[in-house]
Amino acid sequence: MKRRRVAALISAGTVSVMLSGCMTPPARRVETDGTYCYRIGKSYRQKLTCTAVPVPPDAVEASAKRFEPSPGAAMLYIVRRRWGDTANRVPVSIDDRPLVVTIPDSLVRVRLKPGNHQAALDWEGKRQVKSFTVAAGEVLFVEVDGSVWAWGANYGWAEPDAAGARKRASKSKLIADFDLGS
């Protein structure tokens, strides 16, 4: 009886370990041209949404995800990671300067001068603007909130949630790193 129980526990443990490997998300692979593609769907029929330009190297991504303040400048993190946002490229600009085209599950780090700024996103002819003020040494998160349904898609700025945004940012792929604070 005891042997049977031990064998059952070992079998259950082995199956649990093997299944946990199946549940681990695969590493985010960068394409050979340096771009990154967000993938959704089955492996034989995936839908890809790719960055237009190469993404920063892994070392820059690791540095960005420490979310450290920058002396003399503010750090802005633009996060795009929501459950209903699974497609589309959405352009984002800072202070009316085109910055980056975001994709689902992505993160952008921007070093800014202290002061008043505006982040804007454009989707289907509609411009959504978010104004904010940052101080030197401040770290600020803003989130692109998107929903994609069979009848259409909608994008805007989410209400601020620093703790949640930081958590979502740490799970997202860094697609751009800008220094506008010089």
CATH fold title: Immunoglobulin-like
The strand line-up of the biggest sheet is: 10-9-3-6-11
Give the total of domains. Answer: 1
Specify the CATH class: Mainly Beta
Largest β-sheet summary: 5 strands, mixed
| Unreliable stretches covering 5 or more consecutive residues | none
Can you give a write-up of this model?
The protein has 182 residues and is of the alpha+beta class. The protein has a single domain (29-180), classed as Sandwich (Immunoglobulin-like). It contains three helices and eleven strands; from the N terminus they run H-E-E-H-E-E-E-E-E-E-E-E-H-E. It has helices spanning 2-23, 58-64, 162-170, and strands at 37-40, 47-50, 74-80, 90-94, 97-102, 106-112, 115-123, 126-134, 139-149, 152-157, 173-180. A five-stranded mixed sheet has the order 10-9-3-6-11, with helices on one face. The radius of gyration is 20 Å and the shape is globular. The N and C termini lie far apart (73 Å). The model has no long low-confidence stretch (mean pLDDT 86).
